[in-house]
């Protein structure tokens, strides 16, 4: 009974929490680790006081600091906002094309069509240098296809925001590339507007009062070379009339070597709109591609060949008038052909702002170009060649005339700077 009474007594006692000594020790050690000792006492009795680290102050001092000082301290601790300078800091992301992905093929199928370029207002640029020139000039990218991430990291980060970045296999780019040696990157850009473009300052400083008009040029290689010569000579503007190959065709871009982003280009113009792009008092000159034969004929007769329409007894066709030599001669006798003065290319023709018309090799210049030259007081520029040799390549003729115009302007500027007047 005594045992049962003792058990009942224990049952009525309140239960107290049991605290283990090792838990107390563990908590004490953790709390000690969090603290920074103010003094360290060595067994020898030496006492070393620890000073607060740089930028730290005692809690009491921090509490006593004024609100203004606390705000200043917080402003110093917040790092200044900086523009992301690396790919990782910018937070850019890219997609990886897996087998069966049709995004590259679907875009390439349509972007190489002139109809698509004109309707959608998009162009294809290929190669790192050409893409870099386009971005520098202010062209707006839409999509980049690349085979290595390093090619994208080479481009300005601020130009890549909002652009779709798609990593594809190099073999896929090679299948759609027009280059002999593909560079592993293709870009789809909005069709550049010459008004919104930012051309190099050096190009603007060396711009001359010479304008180039391309008339019925259909060869992409020739047009690209002409644009390159126009940029090199400091041409102020290039106008392309209807009937010319598209300036933004991949072959023209490849031959232009970046000239599209160094000189303003106005594409697909009607002849009625051409005068709107000419400076005041501009004289239009038509390049003569018939050589010495034309000059001799002009001195002896009054036939159609006098006006450069017939070269080596072969009629030059026009994109509106495809008539035989007899019809042209009868028309010339009736007096409806423009009468233009013929002068050699090295005679002075840059006294006033000048525009040079370059015609295609197969079709020649158009009737509208001759009429525009007549109405502006211009003429025909003859490039003498050896008799019996066919006409010059249109790109070569354009280069000769543009750089000759540059030479004349430089000579005139030297005379003005030396004598104060031109003689």
Automatic annotation (TrEMBL):
Pfam families: MRM3-like_sub_bind (PF22435), SpoU_methylase (PF00588). GO terms for molecular function: identical protein binding; RNA binding; rRNA (guanosine-2'-O-)-methyltransferase activity. Residues 75-88 have a biased composition (Polar residues). Keywords: Methyltransferase, rRNA processing, Transferase. The keyword Methyltransferase applies. It comes from the Eukaryota. SUPFAM superfamilies: alpha/beta knot, L30e-like. GO terms for cellular component: mitochondrial matrix. Gene3D superfamilies: 3.30.1330.30, 3.40.1280.10. InterPro entries: Alpha/beta_knot_MTases (IPR029028), MRM3-like_sub_bind (IPR053888), Ribosomal_eL30-like_sf (IPR029064), rRNA_Methyltransferase (IPR051259), SpoU_MeTrfase (IPR001537), SpoU_subst-bd (IPR013123), tRNA_m1G_MTases_N (IPR029026). Residues 124-195 form the RNA 2-O ribose methyltransferase substrate binding domain. Residues 46-90 are annotated as: Disordered. CDD domains: SpoU-like_RNMTL1. Belongs to the class IV-like SAM-binding methyltransferase superfamily. RNA methyltransferase TrmH family. This is rRNA methyltransferase 3, mitochondrial isoform X1. It comes from Delphinapterus leucas (Beluga whale). The gene is MRM3.
């Amino acid at each position: 009974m005594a045992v049962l009474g003792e058990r009942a007594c224990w049952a009525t006692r309140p239960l107290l929490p049991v605290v283990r000594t090792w838990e107390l020790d563990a908590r004490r050690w953790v709390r000690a680790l969090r603290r920074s000792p103010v003094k360290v006492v060595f067994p020898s009795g030496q006492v070393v006081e620890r000073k607060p680290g740089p930028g730290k102050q005692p809690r009491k001092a921090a509490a006593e600091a004024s609100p203004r000082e606390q705000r200043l301290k917080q402003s110093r601790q917040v790092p200044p906002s900086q523009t992301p300078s690396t790919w990782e800091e910018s937070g850019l992301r890219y997609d990886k094309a897996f087998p069966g992905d049709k995004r590259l093929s679907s875009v390439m199928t349509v972007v190489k069509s002139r109809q698509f370029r004109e309707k959608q207002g998009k162009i294809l640029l290929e190669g790192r240098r050409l893409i870099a020139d386009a971005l520098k000039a202010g062209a707006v990218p839409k999509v980049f296809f690349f085979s290595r991430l390093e090619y994208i990291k080479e481009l300005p980060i601020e130009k890549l925001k909002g652009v779709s970045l798609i990593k594809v296999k190099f073999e896929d780019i090679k299948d759609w590339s027009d280059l002999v040696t593909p560079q592993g990157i293709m870009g789809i850009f909005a069709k550049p507007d010459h008004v919104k473009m930012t051309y190099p300052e050096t190009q603007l400083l060396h711009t001359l009062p010479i304008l180039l008009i391309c008339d019925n040029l259909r060869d992409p290689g020739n047009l690209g070379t002409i644009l390159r010569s126009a940029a090199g000579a400091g041409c102020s503007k290039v106008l392309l009339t209807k009937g010319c190959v598209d300036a933004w065709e991949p072959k023209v871009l490849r031959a232009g070597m970046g000239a599209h982003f160094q000189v303003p280009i106005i594409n697909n113009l009607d002849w009625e709109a051409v005068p709107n792009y000419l400076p005041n008092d501009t004289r239009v000159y038509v390049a003569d591609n018939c050589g010495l034969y034309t000059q001799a004929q002009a001195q002896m007769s009054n036939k159609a060949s006098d006006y450069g329409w017939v070269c080596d007894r072969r009629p030059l066709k026009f994109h509106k008038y495809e008539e035989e030599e007899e019809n042209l001669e009868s028309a010339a006798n009736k007096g409806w052909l423009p009468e233009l003065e013929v002068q050699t290319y090295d005679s002075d023709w840059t006294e006033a702002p000048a525009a040079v018309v370059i015609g295609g090799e197969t079709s020649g210049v158009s009737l509208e170009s001759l009429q525009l030259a007549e109405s502006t007081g211009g003429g025909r520029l003859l490039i003498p060649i050896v008799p019996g040799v066919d006409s010059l390549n249109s790109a070569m003729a354009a280069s000769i005339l543009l750089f000759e115009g540059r030479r004349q302007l430089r000579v005139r500027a030297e005379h003005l700077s030396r004598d104060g007047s031109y003689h």
